[in-house]
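seq:
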Amino acid sequence: MGKAEDHAPPSGAEQMSSLQKYRSQTMKDYGLMIEYKHLRQHVPGGIYVLPSFDETRIWYGTIFIHTGLYRNGIFKFTIFLPENYNGPGTYPRIVFNTNVFHPYVYAESRELDLKPKFPEWDPELHYMVAVLTYLKSIFFMKEFPENATVANPAALEMYRQKADNKYIGRVERCVDESLENVYNNEQGSTIRFTKHNPAHDNLRKELFAQLETASATDEQKPAAQERESIEEKSAVESNQESS
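struct:
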């Protein structure tokens, strides 16, 4: 009897609970798809993000920095979205692939601290667009709150004593490291960098030539159509006069 009870089918209440959980998770997954579509249209300049092929809640990203202390850096990162995202208090996680020496980035884990910008995560107000805007902003920050608790206190202390250039030196090392590792693609990453192949130069030239030809043809079409219209109109008028 005991064994039969151990393998008893789930009760109606258990089945209903499982169905509700499935529906809830399905709605969250659908919301995530909508959020990514919105993100593609509003992502901050210089940032590229693509979801994983295998895990919808893992996104891969890269940010290109062109000015400021971190200029020329190419920093790759991974976004981890919890199963209950986007819910109250459910923060996404952003982890850089290489070291980023910054007060708001944990030295050991390389994770970006979101709390300075989002002390409380509110799903009605906070989305990945805002998170990535914040991510970009940290590379250009020039001021930090006094007596603030930060992810990397040593970086903050060094920044405030930047007259000795130690902070700048550490930042430059991070930039160099990012460039040295740009072709080291994370396993499973949907954003991959490959070295330039001279064999592709001729293909590139041919492609651009075709694009230029197509563009020139498109520009000539309106003129040709206008000429045809004038010729047709003249022919009609001539026929009318002959009649």
